DNA sequence: AAGACGAAAGTGGTTGA
DNA sequence: TCAACAACTTTCGTCTT
């Protein structure tokens, strides 16, 4: 169900090879190769292990263990780092439960009586530890993703979204996980933000408040997460066009469809005029233009009605309408 | 009375030093 | 990081229809 292929493609591949010189392996785990050992010079003794490491059977030196590692990008070298990096978005409760220690296997290379491990033992433990971290990170990322996807799914069906939109939202969320930006952030809020970002990317005129109605997250918070998401994923958003809001407004206010043309004429003029549209809330502009059209076409609607349909205040409708009339020399009577 | 208007103060985000 | 700033909101009193 959960495919993490994005993880690999997204760049979380890392090469593990930094501690090569300190690792020794058993001869039994190897098969022979033709390279030479840089330490003892032996040619015949070089072997490849089952795990892909190249090792010298004479001295036991691990020459290279460059292999693809699907684990996290970070590596922890100190207890503090382990503490701070050990988790990828897992619940806070768990963090407390194990006091932030990254592994169940202790990070000290000592046994229960306090004696240090032999080097072989240490190598084994180190591998075990690595896999333990790895499996945990994966499972928490997967849990996070699966919870997010089901929330996106739920919201999508409540909002009646097309598959293409919800899939875009899911894709955005995956990219957040790949970029490791989901840690300690609300899954539900990020899921809602992904959906809103999909709206903006596809120029679908639906508001934060609409999404907010279907989740326990406040719309302002979704907005914050949305900005976070845009920043982290470096999304390039289309410039908002007031025209996108017009059909929806007309339908919502049950106005004759022919009005749309008048509104679009006004908006087109405004666009040519420059500076009238920049920096302004496109919904306010659409609302103002619609108000003008309602007067011009004798389909009078109150500012209040338009304002509430557009999700702005009367004052904004008023300001936009006044500006448009002034700048475009529109005669309203 | 309903709708339109505009002033004034408040909010949250952006920008630039 | 902080202050200045623009856009928008909230609130409210006044004017117009």
Word description of this protein:
By secondary structure, this protein is mainly alpha-helical. The protein has 3 domains: 63 residues, no CATH class; 94 residues, Cyclin A, domain 1; 87 residues, Cyclin-like (Cyclin A, domain 1), CATH 1.10.472.10. It is 51% helix and 5% strand. The protein is built from 13 helices and 6 strands. It has a 4-stranded antiparallel sheet, with no helix packed on it. Strands 1-6 form a two-stranded antiparallel ribbon. Helix 10 crosses helix 11. The longest helix has 41 residues. The protein is elongated, with a radius of gyration of 30 Å. The protein starts with a helix and ends in a 5-residue tail after the last helix. The N terminus is likely disordered. The structure holds a DNA duplex (17 and 17 nucleotides).
